[in-house]
């Protein structure tokens, strides 16, 4: 028997519990806040405002890439917002945020406030999705220690 079949048809402990109404609401709130923040970030990159131009130049990026970053983030965000592609969107956002962490490390930004901020954001991306989506709970179950 393959692993996937065993995990979806095994004992009651192997099957993820459906999120409660409160968990779904909390997940929607967390996801909504993350979406609003990342939507704002993508819009200001696409608009190529002077603050983005200055910040990206300080990080060593060519100013012509600002709109590209904004569009890439927007595409990832759209995938995250649509239920059929939410897990794919979370994976894509994780990759995008990982690039931000790498950039911040390379440019020696402050650790807690700047370098780790994309990691905090990624935790909220996955946490909000985990709270509201049974599919994510099946992929990443939280099990009590034995």
TrEMBL record:
It is a multi-pass membrane protein. It comes from the Bacteria. The keyword Membrane applies. It comes from Rhodococcus gordoniae. GO terms for cellular component: membrane. It is found in: Membrane. The chain crosses the membrane at residues 25-47, 68-91, 111-131. Keywords: Membrane, Transmembrane, Transmembrane helix. This is DoxX family protein.
